[in-house]
Write a structure and sequence with these properties.
Structural class: alpha/beta
Number of helices: 13
Strand order of the largest sheet: 5-4-3-10-9-8-7-6
Strand content: 15-25%
Helix content: 25-40%
Distance between the termini: 47 Å
Largest sheet: 8 strands, parallel
Order of helices and strands: EEEHEHHHHEHEHEHEHEHEHHEEH
């Protein structure tokens, strides 16, 4: 199982590779393909790696009664839930047009397949990876069929238990090694107390050989940036052109300036994470030269004296002498020269090696 893999052509995730940032357009496009294109362009201009939609074949996702259910919400685009969803659903040809546009401007495009028929279409469309929405994480027949198609997978885990996610992991890995699981809580907008970023740590323990990510529905960017600091290798956030528009997701979405700031903040945090190796860095040299301390003679010490700790002080010395962490190594050594009170003790003054 790979801890890193190619999610999109030429774009690796996991390991030391940059966090993959998904701008989730979803259905925030108001059913207008020109708005959808503007949102793809926004995602590109803000530095996101991928623009993502939600694709449903409505008869495959809902039963007849669900589609006929009255839908009187202020966010409704129709009298029934079916009318509402049909208004927001792009056709296959429109998806082909959106994919072509994304290719022209240089950003990856995919969609969450919200049912098996939608996954089949997205496979035919040639998306770089499949996104499995939280509502389908426990849909094991669809999960298995999707895994067998061979494309990389990004799986959200909202509304699921750890037991279910263990089963998700076992199911997918039998057929497809290239997948990642995202911590997610399915509420819009999401309160900080319900985010539970600590699940990222648990996922790292449970699934140590796949990348782990985060799909956020909170307001603002801070929590998503924290997820990256905790090891998220994929971050997905909903985006919008206008938070006042009709639709449940707009309030929990990032506008253009917020998305751009999220990308900048993630890249800054990635730089700051740096290396786990602790050492004196070149950038610290000036400070060390000015303030780094040395072992200093606490008294006059004659040549040939056997050294003991009570003869030493630690001060900023000129010239630089033996560093304080080596003080204990001086005990029992002899001086080759006289050392005056308050002088630095240098390696050349000591008999033998330190």
């Amino acid at each position: 199982m790979p801890l890193q893999f190619e999610l999109c052509p030429g774009r690796m995730i996991g390991g030391s590779h940059p966090c993959f940032i998904i701008a989730e357009i979803g259905q925030n496009h108001q059913g207008d393909i020109e708005i959808a294109k503007k949102m793809i362009k926004m995602a590109k201009d803000c530095g996101a790696d991928c623009a993502k939609f939600q694709k449903s074949e409505l008869e495959g996702k809902f039963n007849k009664r669900a589609l006929e259910r009255p839908y009187n919400s202020k966010h409704s685009w129709g009298k029934t839930y079916g009318e509402h969803k049909r208004y927001l659903e792009f056709s296959h040809d429109q998806y082909r047009e959106l994919k072509k546009y994304a290719q022209e401007i240089g950003i990856f495009l995919t969609a969450s397949g919200m049912d098996e028929m939608a996954m089949d279409f997205l496979h035919e469309l040639g998306v770089p990876f499949f996104k499995v929405a939280s509502c389908d994480a426990n849909n094991f027949p669809c999960l298995e069929k999707t895994a067998k198609k061979g494309r990389p997978m990004v799986i959200s885990s909202g509304m699921q238990s750890m037991e279910t996610m263990r089963r998700v992991y076992q199911t997918v890995k039998q057929h497809n090694e290239n997948f990642t699981i995202l911590q997610c809580t399915s509420a819009y907008p999401l309160d900080a107390k319900d985010v539970h970023l600590s699940v990222i740590k648990e996922y790292h323990k449970e699934f140590p050989n796949i990348p782990i990510g985060y799909s956020g529905h909170e307001q603002g960017i801070y929590i998503s940036v924290a997820a990256v600091a905790m090891g998220a290798k994929v971050v997905e956030r909903h985006v919008t052109l206008d938070k006042t528009w009709k639709g449940n997701d707009h309030e929990a979405s990032l506008d253009c300036s917020e998305l751009a700031e999220l990308v900048r903040a993630i890249r800054l945090v990635e730089t700051a994470l740096g290396s786990p190796t602790k050492m004196l860095l070149p950038c610290e040299k000036n400070c060390h030269d000015k303030l780094g301390k040395s072992v200093i003679a606490k008294m006059d010490i004659a040549k040939g004296t056997v050294l003991s700790v009570d003869m030493f002080a630690v001060k900023v010395g000129e010239p630089k002498g033996i560093t304080p962490e080596k003080m204990q190594q001086l005990v029992g050594k002899k001086l080759k020269v006289d050392v005056a009170f308050d002088d630095s003790i240098l390696p050349s003054m000591i008999e033998g090696e330190i």
